[in-house]
Amino acid sequence: MIRARTVSRRYGAHVALHETDFDLREGELVALVGRNGAGKSTLLSVLAGALVPSTGTVERGVPTGWAPQRPALYSRLTPRENVELFARLARAPGTDVDLPDRPAADLSVGQRQRLNLALAFLGEPRALLLDEPTAALDDDRRAELWQRVAALCADGGAVVFATQLHEETERADRVVQLHGGHVE
Amino acid sequence: MRRTALLLRKDLRVLRRSPLLLAVLVSYPLLIALLLALVAGYANAKPRVAFVDDDNLPERVVIGGRAFQVERTIRRVGDDVILVPLERSEAERQLRSGKVVAIVRVPAGFVAQLKAMQRSPQLELETTRGLLASRVTQQMQALVYSLNRELQGAFIAANLRYVDLILHGGEGSFLGRRFDVLGLERAEDRVRDPEVREFIEVAQLALDQTDDALEATANPIELRVNAAGGRTWALSAQVQAYALALVTTFLAAVLAAAALAAERDERVLQRLARGLASLGEILASKVSLASLVAAVLGLGVAVAFGVAVEAAGVEGGEPWSRVPALVPALLLAGAVAGALGALVATLAREARSATLVAVLVVLPIVFLGIVPREAAPAAGWVSHVLPFAHEVRLFDALLYEIDPWRTVIVEAGWLLAIGVVLVAAARTLMRRLTA
Hints:
The structure holds 2 protein chains of 2 kinds. Chain A is an alpha/beta fold.
């Protein structure tokens, strides 16, 4: 579904991600683990197409959703307006979000993360790239998220998620360890 | 196009939710325009000029039998400058320190030379270097012209008395010597030779015409000054053009810079770059936002200015029929300034820096456009490749020139060319934002 070959990413002199190959197959749930600054977010952003790799290529064969670690949304718009705008830009059907009708800047951290995830699910993607998706979510919302992820994988979709939590890696079919920008 | 429109709608919605920002964006350039007006007003203020009287000018001098209030005449120049009577040394000290911009000195023997009517006495003018000095020089030249105008009447009257003496004879004096003159009339009675008598008749006729001829020679052309009911400086066409260009440039540049930088601050740019909107479409939405807002607010400023002009009963009034023609010009000017703002945003690291840099970039552009070319030719050349001066000329032509289209085409062409360069540069540098 997603195929990356010799992708790397540098910021000036600093190499955040060394040349890496990565494949995401149908039905797969992959966990990315590693210390802070290991290159998890960089790899996810490159796979998502949000960052241009310094070297290598990424092929995405299916619609791909992306939820960055820090929510990427318009803070002066309400959740509904955010969803509506991104849905229309993607020519995808909108979705209801159970969030307060006030600017995203005024939402709690957890509510903003839920909006971030809602945007990732827009357009019924077949592959999902989630960067620490459960951070700031309460238990119910975490359970709800993992249910949706499991349903997608069961339906032939695939998900890659970055996490710092050991118990979350146990859900994964495959765990990819990153260290200093290298896949180990 | 559809994506650009969607992003533009979003930006307008965000802007509507930021009334304070909008108020600041409108009021700040208007405040600057007001300050510029004050500074320009100061530039029009009377300069201080030292008046050094080494001849102890009397209040009244009789020249050619006519009385003159010399000091009063000299002080009449105070209509244009502030004359400060000073001792010579103090005047020179103040000239060096810049407290006065010039010294006018009446040298010793000035009145005596004037009374002798043999050689022109001299007033001495010493100035600093700078813009005000040239103004003072012009005013002093005007003063000397004015004095000469008054004196020449006396000089002509004195000359005519000599002519009268030659015609009719009598007692007169010249260079302190008194003498008795026979005169042509009496000479004619005593001459028998017909040819000499004929010459005397012709000479009499010619000298009879001397009066008018001398007056006409002294004043070949006279200037009659009528008080006009024109606009005050504050409501002049030039100020309106400056205010429109200032609001447009400032508002559009800052707005576009802030809007584009905010996309990056909120990390939305990366989400958009995933195929939701191209960098070109994002740039187009910011330029469109700047253009649209500049047009709406610029039009508001023009209408407010027009209402003020009407309320003040200014002669000529506001050219209301031309106001609609401002719309495309404002759209163009706003788009060019928006492209400038977008370019700034690509260079800054985040929204606050982008906004600050946009302000810092716009202000010198504005000032370069305001500096008169005569005062600083280099400023004129530089501002030629910047949008502000072209905007001023475009708005001024659209509102007040009888046949504005040539100017409009030239200035709009310049703006278009500058805009294309700015958009191309911004588009190229935008890759940095997602790279």
